[in-house]
Amino acid sequence: MKFSLHTPCLFVALSICALLYTARVGESTFVPTRCLCTQTYRVVRGPFVDFSVTSKGPHCSTDEIIVKLQRNNKEVCLSPDGPQAKRLKKCWNRKSKNGGNKKKCLRKRGNKKQGQKRGSKQSKGATS
Hints:
Elements lengths: L5 H17 L17 E2 L6 E7 L9 E6 L5 E4 L4 H16 L13 H16 L1
Parallel strand pairs: 1-4
Antiparallel strand pairs: 2-3, 3-4
């Protein structure tokens, strides 16, 4: 077998073509390199349109819960230790395991105490 200069050049050219073919541009995913939330709030008033949860990792040492407000579409970060963030994260974990819709986590919760007070007022009014 005769060894010539064309054989190694052809091999290198084919290797480069194969490498470029496998390194095609695919769908990119945003991976943050630092925490997205610089300021957090324990409680935020107003209805929410959407929210996202980013678990802690090499980019950030805490979980990040970002809500989008309905009144101005502004994104606000909730403190992971606050009551709203804990409720949203718990619901988000439950929905992601079951494959449910995370928008259901944004519904307002009914207050049981108000319903009991109303019922007791109605019963008092009915007896007098």
